[in-house]
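Q: I'm building a small set of examples for a reading group on sequence design. Run inverse folding on the following structure and report the sequence directly after it, with nothing in between.
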């Protein structure tokens, strides 16, 4: 589904949004879904008449299983270079476990994640804060994981991964505190995202916002950061 010209949300990736973004040097695949979704993603490329070899980068907003599950398979199928922040590399390469999984409350979710066999992969490009990748600025927005990043085009669009989420009606909210590895960092990242200007916001979960997104995010962040962190912890939000 085309969100705005040059940015598509890949159809049918279970539970997570993966995006295809057109850039001057080729296509970016942003996030890859749970293990086993690669055929669906490659089918989406085919439907859009995109040659696998024209994928320049496979950008991972952070190393959670639902975002990196097909990274290795897609690298093999397209030749795209894997890009991720250095702090999430140990999980990507299988040297550290998926820490956020342990924080899930529902045992069924935990079990599903353990049963899906993750194939580790090495990164090709490290997404340090402030670098540019195919015209998109990399912003380090830790909290949910230590190496969470956003991709940003000033005044235009931001890809936020799981720094925040939206409902399917397009209402934004912070990511659940249960799956934030560092709440204080997550709050600061939200404040940083709210200070930027963009029309379009592309979340890892929920509906993309396509009009005046920064105004909508600013009012949500103002509301949830109005109380001290400790109170918000008790309330179950931050
Ligand atoms: Zn996610």
């Amino acid at each position: 589904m085309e969100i705005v010209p040059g940015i598509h949300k890949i159809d049918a990736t279970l539970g997570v949004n993966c995006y295809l973004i057109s850039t001057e040097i080729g296509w970016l695949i942003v996030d890859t879904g749970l293990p086993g979704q690669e055929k669906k993603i490659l089918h989406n490329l085919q439907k859009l008449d995109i040659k696998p070899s024209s994928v320049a980068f496979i950008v991972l907003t952070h190393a959670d299983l639902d975002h990196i599950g097909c990274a290795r398979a897609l690298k093999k199928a397209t030749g795209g270079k894997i890009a991720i922040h250095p702090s999430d590399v140990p999980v990507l390469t299988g040297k550290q476990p998926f820490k956020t999984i342990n924080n899930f409350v529902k045992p069924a979710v935990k079990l599903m994640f353990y049963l899906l066999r993750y194939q580790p992969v090495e990164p090709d490009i490290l997404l340090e804060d402030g670098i540019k990748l195919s015209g998109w600025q990399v912003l380090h927005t830790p909290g949910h994981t230590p190496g969470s990043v956003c991709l940003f085009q000033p005044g235009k669009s931001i890809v936020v991964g799981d720094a925040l989420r939206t409902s399917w009606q397009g209402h934004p909210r912070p990511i659940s505190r249960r799956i934030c590895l560092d709440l204080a960092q997550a709050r600061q990242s939200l404040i940083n995202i709210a200070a930027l200007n963009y029309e379009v916001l592309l979340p890892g979960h929920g509906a993309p916002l396509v009009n005046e997104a920064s105004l909508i995010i600013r009012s949500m962040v103002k509301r949830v950061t109005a109380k001290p962190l400790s109170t918000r912890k008790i309330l179950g939000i931050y």
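The pocket of zinc ion is lined by residues 16, 64, 66-67, 162, 204-205 (CB under 6 Å).
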